[in-house]
Amino acid sequence: MRHKPVSFEPPERLKKLPPYLFVEVDRRKRELRAQGKDVIDLGVGDPDLPTPDFIIEALAEAARDPKNHRYALDQGLPELRETFARWFEERFRVQLDPHEEILPLIGSKEGIAHLPLSFLNPGDVALVPDPCYPVYKSAVHLAGGVPHLLPLLGSADFLPDLDSVEPSILEKSRLLFLNYPNNPTAAVAPREFFEKAVAWARGHGILIAQDAAYSEMTFDGERALSLLEIEGARETAVEFHSLSKTYNMTGWRIGFAVGNREVIRLLGKVKSNIDSGIFQAVQLAGKRALEEGRAAYEPLVKIYQKRRNLFIRGLEGLGWNVPLPKATFYCWIPVPAGYTSQELAMKLLEEAQIIVTPGNGFGPNGEGYVRASLTLREERIQEALRRIEKIHTHWHGK
Ligand SMILES: *Cc1c(COP(=O)(O)O)cnc(C)c1O
User: Which of 20, 58, 200, 331 is the most buried (most CB within 10 A)?
Assistant: First the structure.
């Protein structure tokens, strides 16, 4: 028999995926921990607190019922979709058809990742904010699309300038990703921006995919809008929602796509060929979480707001001015003069054993920032501030 070795050369679409930029920080984190160092991790965007008990109880009960052990329906339980529709109407005053405008997901990331595959032809351009949650770009590459970056600048409140897209790019564009409240910048979009985006998208035949993973995590009485509150948005947009951050359920994998029914149908078609639904017990626990609504997550938002105040005021006390985030558990921190994002992150790690995420990992316009995630108890945040104070005297500039 002739021998022909398998080629492990990655396919072109995998080669296009951006390199993982946090390798160096991760490697040093593991090394320092192995040396017994007390590393404070402000890097991960994953809530530290447990899922509320009543949701765990609902899961345990549902898990005992053999009805829930079999393949789930592709489109999710009707009662879950109906409960989400009620939650959505109460929260945003928008009525959704639970059967055609709502699709449960195995976490919103799953839906976001499958959207370009459901909607783009190879070569189509997708407009992606820079900096952004890395999945948008990767998902476009995996679908054979071409990401085109739209800068999010502090001087423009981290909103993209849609009119700046060149006609030659615009012509090939079919999809625009938005994410408000925003990871990593913590920006919130005002109604005028959403109105402008919808009018612009309708004028150019572009679908908006708005990622609302942090819609409930806003501070100082601010309430985030749904893009679907804007007149006409349903013709041109889908929005992604998630129970992950709102209810401390990141590991459970449950989210929703809502909005344009054609897109919901296309996304459902891709999904029905790939997965076989969400574990039904998780669907029922998610339904229970939604029924409880604000009462379940208001205390969590208060906790994040207290942590935010502690951290930002603490940095201010050191003469390091960081804008107060209006939403999310992230602080988007301008890097002091004389450092790159990567240099500051490595310095904090080496000299204070504090992990932050270098902003350039989220896109070229993230350079000049680091992201700190307040998913740690107040004592740990205080300890981080003490360590920063110790090394801060060496810093100059801002
Ligand atoms: C965490 C996060 C998600 C993913 O949420 P899941 O529902 O757990 O998949 C989506 N978008 C952004 C911006 C996030 O930060």
Answer: 331
